[in-house]
Amino acid sequence: MSDPIDDHVTSARIPSDISRSDKIVGPFTARQAAFLAVGALVLYGGWWLSRPYLDPLAYAALVIPIAGTITAIALGRREGVDLDRFLLAAVAHARTPKRRVHAPESVGPLPDLVPTRMARAAGRAPAAMRMPHRGVAPAGVLDLRSEGKAALATCSTVNFELRSGAEQQALTAAFARWLNSLTVPTQLLVRCHRVDLTPLAGRLHEDAAALPHPALEHAARAHADFLAQLATGRDLLARQVVLVAREPAPARGAARRADADRALQRINEADRALAAAEITVTALDGPQSAELITSACNPDTPAAVVGCGGCSISSYVISALLISSPT
Question: Where does the chain cross the membrane (predicted)?
């Protein structure tokens, strides 16, 4: 017998590879068909030019390995990426300097006092690191040079599994409405980073004496000791959902001053639209955006947890007691 609460739930079949290219010519995509067509024309042109000098069987023996290589590159895939794009990315990676340092003024040569033998042993000089953005504005907008401007925000999560079928359907519909309203490039990034609970444990110890009841003070100190033990004995990880709204650069001659305002407007629109899905979108200002970029470039640096999102110390301890209580 079906559950009446879940009667309004609708399902849709989604392919496992939603970014798969459309088939244009038979089983081939437009990119594969163009690659094969160009290869066939080149081989046919070679045959047309060499036919007065080569026997057809000799020419076929020469071009069969070349045709096989072209076919493998056009139709092959590696780790979900077309093989031609994978090879181009491999060439770009091989040509990219592996040692880069933060040197806006460029990296100069070694001083003359360094012996030649030591300079050769040091290897190739490091290259200057070029970040994809010029800087972060006080409002938290990133200047991406020719790619426009981007605004950052953090998103809260929703406990989806504990909802009824009708509630899940409502949340999904609200999120779908926001996706369908997007007109500019938008990214949802789920990042995992290390956290440090030592500041939170220290704050609990300091504020425990201000609690209105001795039992709460005892519970606060016990919970602080538990957090300190977790901080010293385990490698703690946390997840963060980051929303990036990018405003493309306008055409030449158009004003660029409004790009930052439009990027921030995209964040505000997402906040209003995702509120129906019970998702809180919090825009990041300049220092917060800079801190987020710095931590993304240094993933081994743990982030400190200093509070519980604005709640008081007593409500935090009561919530911790309710969560840890066996009843």
Answer: 33-50, 56-75
